[in-house]
Amino acid sequence: MDSTTEKQLHRVVIVGGGFSGLYAAKALGRAPVSVTLVDKRNFHLFQPLLYQVATGTLSPADISSPLRGILSDRKNTSVVMEEVADLDPARQVLVLKGEDLPYDTLVVATGVSHHYFGNDQWRETAPGLKTIEDALEMRRRIFMAFEAAEQETDPEKRKAWLTFVIIGGGPTGVELAGAIAELAYRTLTEDFRNIDTTEAQILLLEGLDRILPPYDPELSVKAAESLANLGVTVRTKTLVTNIDNNVVTLRHGDHTEQLSAKTILWAAGVKASGMGQVLAEKTGVALDRVGRVMVEPDFSLAGHPSIFVIGDLAHYAHQGDKPLPGVAPVAVQEGEYVARLIQKRLQGAPIPAFVYKDTGSLAVIGQNAAVVDLGFIKFSGSLAWFTWIFAHIYYLIEFDNKLIVLLQWGWNYFTRKRGARLITGEGAMAQSAEVDADGNYRVPAGVK
Amino acid sequence: MDSTTEKQLHRVVIVGGGFSGLYAAKALGRAPVSVTLVDKRNFHLFQPLLYQVATGTLSPADISSPLRGILSDRKNTSVVMEEVADLDPARQVLVLKGEDLPYDTLVVATGVSHHYFGNDQWRETAPGLKTIEDALEMRRRIFMAFEAAEQETDPEKRKAWLTFVIIGGGPTGVELAGAIAELAYRTLTEDFRNIDTTEAQILLLEGLDRILPPYDPELSVKAAESLANLGVTVRTKTLVTNIDNNVVTLRHGDHTEQLSAKTILWAAGVKASGMGQVLAEKTGVALDRVGRVMVEPDFSLAGHPSIFVIGDLAHYAHQGDKPLPGVAPVAVQEGEYVARLIQKRLQGAPIPAFVYKDTGSLAVIGQNAAVVDLGFIKFSGSLAWFTWIFAHIYYLIEFDNKLIVLLQWGWNYFTRKRGARLITGEGAMAQSAEVDADGNYRVPAGVK
Fold first, then answer.
1. DSSP bridge pairs for A158
2. CATH topology classification for B118-267
């Protein structure tokens, strides 16, 4: 295109390179618009597999793809690696830390982060799982716990090192608990001389009356059975009332209990990213209880038709009795819908209302153990596990060389090895640098 | 074995899980001795491929194997993840941070680290490449430089972001320069909108009169030609006299010159790890100019026949006119030799003196470009490249699931993609967090 045409192009700015933002960018990449994708990271992260990085099966690069690489053949698309500082809807300008970015249409897809329900002091002891850095920190803690147990001579302290508490029985919590159980009861059994890794306790805590609450109750039962077979202790209707000095206080009905555990992982809640607050202040849009943005049926903001919010940050209440869940298939469909809407709007044509096509729910528990709910059929076991594998590989391959992941899994399947169980990062040079005199984690400065 | 036998077992303590220490442990793993391998990390690192992590081709786990996993079937062998605090040769005790470890035979194999020749203040601006963390920091800086150049509007500053200076023309420097040139001139060419990555300047600086000084001069010429073809500017007889504020001061004969470069990588020198100093103090052994330990013909210390030093930390001057070089094949052969010696000594049998069998020298410059010197034959180009690939895969496969590496390379070969070009780690969330107002790196606290 020559520069005259380029000047007239409608400018779409997309904030966030997760599933919804990236699929919107991909869909607009061949349209007669100019697209700018803003992200503070230089890669798209395949979040559904992040727990496999946290538990030593995959490497960060296996589940990440550079945004520039994915979009390199979209010549109308620029990628800007920057943080958003502010928004000026009147002037239609997105203010980045380094520059101002004018837009004709703005698509905000910045997602969610951990939510500690007002107990942000738990963050250090019980880290969550949203970023690559989170996953590497979890990996470090999990494998460090076995190392520390191997060197600990006091039986009580050793038990605490071999106790893993996962808070939250959604898909992430279930997947983490299953993967840690496989580590302790299968992968690591021959590796230590002083400890028996099969003495490890893996507890999965859920406040509601069953794990995987959004799924069909039948699958919750199957998942709980599979977890029990792997050696995970599942406790439902159990609330965490305090975490202090590596002691978790639980409440189950009227019963209160304390558990010593050196490894506590948070998979319990999410809240909207900071952009939700910025949008509320600048446009007056309403937020829900966890800060998600209440969107119109077409994902635009009330009174601001040129601003859209999609993905986990959007509270979409126009289909069913609950908002659409924060899962990848929803995000992908929203991104593609908004991309189509923007193009049609430029042509002055209406498009049908958004309808989410439920592609089913999947959760993996361990090798050969998963649950699948495709709506018309529900199943579990080996077949579910293979369904899960192929569903994930299908998405991964769209981007990059992620056939490697399939091969890595194939290898692990036959050898039960895990190659990525490295303890790395700041201060990971030795256990003594990590654990203070009381045997507690000394969290390096700056690690959130 | 029952506990009575176990009590009588000769205790071998090995410090360091690099090539020499690990191969010694493997060789002793089936002998009637008790072996303890001490390392501050929980994995063996295949250092010859570390530059591929630094330049975004491989992931850390692709070139690392958990020590416990490698040694899990050696039931006489314990792995202790700890740092060494001190040594007491009179009591035959190695003092760890957490405990005392008595030994009958001690094998020290703690290797070397970077050497800035008295200019330790250069470390922050010009990081070296020894650990996984070093490699991830290099990777972050290299890819961040392209991102910063894309956003920079001042032509001078943009040029500095696109200038990469590699100091030191040994194998690591040559491999880094070649890999960065491939990134700039091949992999990334379609990824940016404001910059032309082929305008990047990659400079390789060497103080001596040719690159790859330990190799045959003919191969140095071939390597320099291949680098020039890739777009690398090679400058020999060029000394770095200062690095300050991202400006490198060079001296070539009487000529002095200053270069602005935001990415400066150190591949120039090594010095012995701290254990050399501890050994010198406690046993009176002599050290060479860079702190390596002067060993006897059987790698023991003069007057201390139960202490051995092997690998890069050893200065072995009993073969040829120079000490044996600090490369993996030397380390492997030394480790295996000492393991054999320890076993024979227990039987009261002498073994022949150590003779290093030169397996040849290899350096890779880029896709299809490498130099190989097998002693009886020297060659370069595609055949050398394939020789290099298979030599490395052969070693890697001995350990673990590193067939993955071959597949990754195969994929890269045909697509020219690189999947691992992630910017991660402390403060990698956005460029603005990394670069201060003058456009210099703000190094996060605690990063060495």
1. none
2. FAD/NAD(P)-binding domain (3.50.50)
